[in-house]
Amino acid sequence: MNQKLNEIAKILPTIGLGTRHIFDITSVYKNIRPYGILHFEKKYLSIVEKSMDELSLSIFSKKYLYKEADPNSREGILSLAKNSEEENFCELWFLNKNNIDLNRSLSWDELHSRTGYYLSYPDCCVGAWEKYQAQNIFYEKYIYETKRGFWQNNRLASIFYPDILMLDYFPCSLDCPHASQLADKIFSVINTELDADLLNNSFKWMKAVYFVNQEYLFASPEWIKKDDRISINQDKIQKVKLQEVAKMIKRSIDKIHLIPFEHYSGVAFLDIMREDEILATFKV
Fold first, then answer.
1. Does the chain have fewer CB atoms within 10 Å around its N or its C terminus?
2. Same domain assignment for residues 49 and 189
């Protein structure tokens, strides 16, 4: 276990970042990616700078921004402050001090003209973001997915558990192999460097069962698969209105739509349970 990483992972939630950002930090610390980026409240800058220094990570670009709510999704929007808007957030780019070959003089404009490239996001995902440039479109795509996805790409988990371990971008699809491969490289390090109690909740929600019915998205982090059936306890199910996920979603589904993932492939029936009693069975 890496004591420094674990200590910083435990500090992050106290400064408004969350344990999930250790995913970004570790990927640069371990040279899986050349560059990393963090967004956080401006008042925490000195603490973040100290943490970066302890991990031999060098800050090479810093910009103060204005954060506001996205009217069409549950995410926030960062932009340059205008008129009376207060610069309340900080954007910080960093790299590993030992990586002397990297360009440390990149301008903020250059970084933002090719953000996905510098952050090593898959080309297909960068292209999808450039095409849509709207978070609600990605959430709608994930919710109505019909191809089996990878749990490593499960951005839907952040709706129920915001601290999931993912890089801060939207995979072009839940079944994108390039996104899952990038995540696996980081997980291969995270799993040996961080305490299990920092990881377990994220894994539980990323591997949860997700389904849609009418105007709701449902999730259950506790489930049992046997043969072609998944059983979930009704008391463990959480739900959120689709329009709270992305306000542009207009569709509703009258039958159960199980969002398909590889880790529970081959499922034909969903059983809603109360203790050992089956309350309802749905063909999925």
1. N
2. yes
62, two tokens: 């810093």
CA dihedral (209, 137, 82, 47) in degrees, to 10, reads 30
- pLDDT over threshold 90, residue 183: yes
CB-neighbour burial class of residue 227 (10 A; exposed 0-12, middle 13-18, buried 19+): exposed
Q: Are residues 198 and 212 in the same domain?
A: no
The reported pLDDT for the residue numbered 157 is: 96
Whether 247 and 231 map to the same domain: the answer is yes
pLDDT at 2 over 90: no
Q: Which domain holds residue 228?
A: 208-283
Q: Are 25 and 55 in contact (CB under 8 A)?
A: yes
Residue 89 has phi, psi (to 5 degrees) of -130, 160
Same structural domain, 176 and 274:
no
Strand order in 238-241's β-sheet? 238-241, 216-220, 209-214, 253-258
190 and 266 in a single domain? The answer is no
Do 147 and 173 form a contact (C-beta atoms < 8 A)?
Answer: yes
122 in Cβ contact with 176 (< 8 Å): yes
On whether both 114 and 185 belong to a single domain, the answer is yes
Task: Check if the beta carbon of residue 222 is closer than 8 Å to that of residue 263.
Answer: no
Domains held by the chain: number: 2
User: What are the pLDDT digits (tens) for 232-282?
Assistant: 999 999 999 988 887 767 666 678 999 999 999 999 999 999 988 999 999
Residues 189 and 155 both lie in one domain: yes
The pLDDT of residue 139 is above 80: yes
| pLDDT tops 90 at residue 120 | yes
Mean pLDDT value of segment 102-115: 85
The H-or-E segment that residue 157 falls in is: helix 157-160
* pLDDT tens column, 186-200: 999 999 999 888 899
Query: At which of 159, 187, 202 does a domain end?
Result: 202
